Amino acid sequence: MNTTNKIIVLIVAIIIVAIGVGFLTIFDSNKYSLGARDSASIEQTPTLTNTTWVWREAILISEETISPKIDDVFTIKLTPDGKVSGTTDCNSFKSEYTTEAQSINFSSFVSTKMFCEGSQEQEYIGMLSMSTSYTFDVLGNLILIFNGDGGAMIFEPVI
Fold it and tell me: In degrees, to the nearest 5, what angle opens at C-alpha 151 toward C-alphas 7 and 132?
């Protein structure tokens, strides 16, 4: 799929979330499409909390696609009491969050202070900080959608 189509998918996704419907399908195998989600399309409805999510890709409105250089190390876990924790390719971090409907707001992130040459940590934490809403695709993946310049992060649940 070409870059223009990826941008169209992101714009449509943002509009869908803005009107509160939240039906979105994004396949992280670089084949992006939209589709309706119904109760029969996935075996179990995903939940935001008590799941460890692994970052797979970010798609920016600027036509840039960002993927982790190291698979399975960028995680995030949200708990029902408003706490969030995770790992990067260098450090662990924590924060707090609030949700209302499909809006999400993260407080400032704090992390351990180890330095790692070439780490994507700042980029990852920066994108998390820009997230203002979320949804799930029909595969049960978490989609964090950015405010402002647009874009989204795609996460898979750790099973």
Answer: 145
